[in-house]
UniProtKB/TrEMBL annotation:
It comes from Blautia caecimuris. Pfam families: Sm_multidrug_ex (PF06695). It comes from the Bacteria. Keywords: Membrane, Transmembrane, Transmembrane helix. PANTHER family: TRANSPORT PROTEIN-RELATED. This is Membrane protein.
Length: 166
C-alpha cells in the first residue's frame, strides 16, 4: 500500500493541491482512508484538516456501491470481457464475508474498521450488497467502521509513522 500511496502522492501533487491528493486517494479502492491519512502525514497536512477530507473521500463511493453494484455486476457478467473478472471479484468478496454473515452489523463494522489488506469500506459495501444486508444497517456499520479506521490510522500515520518520518 505504501508504494501506491507514494506513487499517487508523487504524481498527483505536481498538478493538484495536497488536500485534493488525499481526497482522491481516499476514494480509491484498496487505498481508501488508510492511504489518504498516510499520504496526508507524508505531505505534512495537519490531522485536523486531513481527517474530514479523508472521511468524506472514503464515504462518497459507498452509497453507489450499496445501491447499484449488484445491477452493474449483473450487466457486466453478460459480456465475455468482464464475466470472469466479475466472478472473481464476487468470489473474493464473498470469501471474506464469514464474519459479516455471522455478526452482520458488528461484523461489517469491524471488517471495515480494522485496517488490514482486503478490508475497508469498498469491500464491506460490496459484501453487504451481495449479502443483501439492509441498506440503513449496512450504511451505519460502514460509517462506524470508517470512524474506527480513522482513529487507528490517525495513531499509525501521525503517531508512529509521523514520528519516524519527521
Amino acid at each position: 500500500m505504501e508504494v501506491l500511496v507514494q506513487w499517487f502522492t508523487d504524481n498527483l501533487s505536481q498538478f493538484i493541491s495536497a488536500e485534493m491528493v488525499i481526497f482522491i486517494i481516499s476514494m480509491v479502492p484498496i487505498l481508501e482512508l488508510r492511504g489518504g491519512l498516510l499520504a496526508a502525514s507524508l505531505l505534512k497536512i495537519p490531522a485536523a484538516t486531513a481527517i474530514p477530507i479523508c472521511i468524506i473521500g472514503n464515504i462518497i463511493p459507498i452509497p453507489f456501491i450499496l445501491l447499484f453494484i449488484r445491477q452493474i455486476f449483473k450487466l457486466m457478467k453478460k459480456t465475455k470481457i468482464f464475466h470472469g473478472l466479475i466472478e472473481k471479484l464476487e468470489n473474493r468478496a464473498m470469501g471474506k464475508s464469514d464474519q459479516i454473515k455471522k455478526y452482520e452489523f458488528w461484523g461489517l463494522m469491524l471488517f471495515v474498521g480494522i485496517p488490514l489488506p482486503g478490508t475497508g469500506a469498498w469491500t464491506g459495501a460490496l459484501i453487504a450488497s451481495l449479502l443483501e444486508v439492509d441498506i440503513k444497517k449496512s450504511s451505519l456499520a460502514i460509517l462506524g467502521g470508517i470512524i474506527m479506521a480513522t482513529v487507528i490510522m490517525y495513531v499509525v500515520s501521525y503517531g508512529l509513522v509521523g514520528n519516524i518520518v519527521h
